[in-house]
Every structure is written in C-alpha cells, then in structure tokens.
Design a protein that fits this description.
Number of helices: 15
Strand content: 15-25%
Structural class: alpha/beta
Largest sheet: 7 strands, mixed
Shape: flat
Bound molecules: guanosine-5'-triphosphate, magnesium ion
Radius of gyration: 24 Å
Mean pLDDT: 87
Number of strands: 13
Distance between the termini: 45 Å
Order of helices and strands: EHEEHEEHEHHHEHHEHHHEEHHEHHEE
CATH architecture of one domain: 3-Layer(aba) Sandwich
Helix content: 40-55%
Low-confidence stretches: 46-69
CATH topology of one domain: Rossmann fold
CATH class of one domain: Alpha Beta
C-alpha cells in the first residue's frame, strides 16, 4: 500500500460554541465598575454603538450585592463597533453611502460573590448569564475610593480574581458531575461491540478526565485537549472554557502614571495561574470623562492627562479572544465588515449576509486587503491577476474582500 498522504499537522478544533454570533460578558465581583464601563462602551464613538435591552427574565435585586443603588440585575446588551484601520482605509477609498464596521456584542452581567456557585444571593441566575456568553471581560477593581463600598470590605484584586475563578470552577464541577451521572445512566446497557457504544464510553472517559482536571484546581481552558476531547467539552458548555481578558480598573491618576501597587501582583497571578491571558489596565473614571466629548475635546483631555483611551484596545482584544475575524464587502453603496470565526469556509462566510448565499453558493471573487492597499484600486488588483475565484473549500482569511456569486 502506498504511504498515507500527509495532510500536515492536524488542525486544532476551537474551544467554545461554534458560530459567528459570539458574545462577551463583563464579569466580576460587585461594585467594581462593570456597569459604568458598559455604559461608557455603549455610549462611545459618537453613539454609534446601539444599546438593546434584553428581554431576559427580570430577576429581583440580590441582597448580597446591593452595595449601590445601581446594582445590575438583568443583563443588558450592546453592540460595540470594533476599531480597524483597514475598515477606515476602505471607507476612504470607496466613499460609500453607508459604512458598517464590525461589532462586538457585549453584555453587562451582575456581580458574582463568593458562594454564587452554591446559589448564594442570585448566584445561580447570574452564573446562567455567564453561561450565555462566549468570552469574558473580567473587571478587576484596583482603584481606592472610600465612597465606593467593596463587597468584601477592602480592595484586593487577587482575592477578587480568585473568587471569580473559584466560583466558575465549582459550577463547572457541579455541571460535569451531573453530565457523568447522565452518561452513566445511559451507558448501563452498553455492549462492547457497536461503534456507538464505544463512542459513548469514550465520551464518559473524557468527561471524567475533565472532572479530574477541575478537581485538581485547574480551569478547562488551560488543559491540553485532543480535538475529540474538545468536541465533547464544547457540548458541556463549561464556564471555565471561556477566554478571559483581564481589565484592571485603575484611578485616573494611576492609569496616567502607569503605576499601581496591584498591577505587578495581578500580572504575577495571571502568569502563574493562567499564563498567556491578556491584562489591560485602564480607568473607568477616565473613560467616563472622555465619553461625552467630541473628537477634538477628547484629544485635548488625553493630552492634558497624559494618557489615551483604552476602549479601542479592549474591544479589539475581546473580539480576538473569541477567535473572530472579519471580511469586507465593498462598493459605492456600502463598505461593510462581516464577522466570522477563524476557520470559516467561504459558503458559511457568505451565509452570514444571507442564508441564500450559503444555500445557493456558487463561488466568491476574493482579493486580500493587502493587495488592494498595494495596488490602490480594484481594477489594478484585477489587472495584476490577484482577484481569485474561490470555491466551497476556501477558508476565509482575515481582511478578505469578497463578492459572492450564488445561483438563482
Ligand atoms: N472612584 C471610582 N468609582 C467608580 C469607578 N468605576 C465605578 N465606580 C463607582 O462604583 C460604583 C459601582 O459601579 P458600577 O459600575 O455600578 O459597578 P458594578 O460592577 O456594575 O456593580 P454590580 O452591578 O453591583 O456588580 C458606582 O458608584 C460607580 O460610580 C472608578 O473607576 N473610580
Ligand atoms: Mg453592574
């Protein structure tokens, strides 16, 4: 027999819910500035972000987190434009009537306290809101303000980060134990021969391995899993499988001087516990100051304070943490960015615009942003032979510019 053709290294399956319509939730202990940050985000960029109220089950106030009159109960959702210099450049080139950037869907979630996983306060309801998002902005308070009560008495970001991680992990343990029970019940009648029985046994073995991992004090996202295991894990919808970006809320002064006694400690905690995770220091107070200003005024205040807004960096980081990329459609009517997940094939990418584009997919005429930028115009890119016809197997690349052709 001829040797098997090598297809290169196996592609790693992405952890998380499949799909392109992914959401990020703002998570943290109570009173750390989550809602203030959410409001700034949804108000920023001249009000282009649209704030939608969720029809979510309205829950009553939590007695444990009632530390201020604005305590979040039901989650709110906003679509935040994600800054991208390529999009701006394309708009300059096409001067379209309508411009639609990429958006990150962001959800403000109520504060979690120690004991949330066992249902303290409205812990279970709030954790179910975390289950409904795909990624986490973890808001960490490092600002001092005697006026703003901390739910645990004093400011201690390491305790807060640990509280959140522990609650998410404990909930995952409970969830995984339930899954094992269900699988065991279903597997009593299993034999040793059929493929389906074998798959069920493998699934149970994976879930048991996940439970062991969690019981060892580790989170799912930091495990080394095979693609088969990831398929099983994705079915479990575990909280600690979600990517986290740590947002450290500093006072304006500390943010401007880039110094705060907690920052090195938080960095060390991340390095030790969740190496590779991103930490972004910023200041909600400073962002609140900038939010209502126009571009010129913003510039002035940023100069005076000696710091720049971190909002763009934060939305970009959140978008990337969800493995999202974008492609563009361009023309005189509209320049628009379409969000897809890394690894999306052409027909599914076209389907983000309209399901017919996917169902009746013929091909895509695709050029790269870099080629367009280099050549200066679509005609020049065409003349250089760099507009390519791509079929169903084509995997989209971040920054592709596409024209879809679909059958009638
Ligand atoms: N000094 C200072 N106060 C802040 C800052 N961010 C938020 N606050 C104040 O802290 C209090 C709580 O802010 P929220 O944004 O409602 O906090 P939260 O994290 O959403 O709280 P929960 O929804 O209860 O979990 C409010 O009184 C804010 O004005 C900040 O950066 N500096
Ligand atoms: Mg809130």
């Amino acid at each position: 027999m001829p040797p098997k053709k090598s297809a290169g290294p196996e592609k790693k399956t992405l952890l998380g819910r499949p799909g392109n319509n992914l959401k990020i939730g703002i998570v943290g202990v109570p009173n750390v500035g989550k809602s203030s940050f959410f409001n700034v985000l949804s108000r920023d960029r001249s009000g282009k972000g649209s704030k939608l109220s969720l029809r979510h089950h309205k829950v009553s106030y939590s007695p444990v987190s009632r530390t201020n009159s604005n305590t979040t109960d039901s989650p709110e959702e906003a679509r935040i434009p994600v800054p991208d210099p390529r999009f701006d450049w394309l708009c300059d080139l096409y001067k379209p009537a309508s411009r639609v950037p990429a958006f990150l869907t962001c959800i403000d979630i109520a504060g979690l306290t120690a004991g949330a996983s066992t249902g303290a306060g409205l812990g279970n309801a709030f954790l179910s809101h975390v289950r409904a998002v795909d990624g986490i902005f973890q808001m960490v308070r490092a600002f001092d303000d005697a006026e703003v009560i901390h739910v645990d008495g004093d400011v201690d970001p390491i305790r807060d980060i640990t509280t959140i991680q522990t609650e998410l992990r404990l909930k995952d343990i409970e969830w995984t134990e339930k899954a094992i029970d269900t699988l065991k019940k279903g597997s009593r009648a299993l034999g040793n021969t059929s493929l389906a029985d074998k798959a069920k046994k493998e699934e149970l073995a994976t879930v048991e391995k996940v439970l062991q991992h969690l019981n060892d004090g580790k989170i799912v996202r930091k495990g080394d899993w095979s693609n088969k295991e990831i398929d099983v894990i994705n079915g479990l919808m575990l909280l600690t499988a979600r990517p986290i970006t740590y947002l450290v809320n500093l006072s304006e002064k500390d943010y401007a001087r880039k110094k705060n006694k907690w920052l090195p400690k938080i960095k060390a905690w991340i390095d030790e516990n969740n190496p590779g995770d991103l930490l972004i220091p910023f200041s909600v107070a400073f962002e609140e100051k900038l939010a209502p200003l126009n571009a010129e005024e913003k510039e002035e205040v940023q100069k005076a304070v000696g710091a720049t807004s971190a909002l763009g960096k934060i939305t970009q980081a959140g978008y990337a943490s969800l493995d999202l990329i974008r492609y563009f459609t361009c023309g005189p009517d509209e320049v628009r960015a379409w969000t897809i997940r890394k690894g999306t094939k052409a027909p599914q990418a076209a389907g983000v615009i309209h399901s017919d584009f996917e169902n009746k997919f013929v091909c895509g005429e695709i050029m790269s942003y870099d080629d367009l930028k280099e050549q200066g115009s679509e005609t020049a890119v065409k003349a250089a032979g760099k507009v390519r016809q791509q079929g169903k197997p084509y995997e989209m690349v971040d920054g592709d510019i596409a024209y879809w052709k679909s059958g009638a």
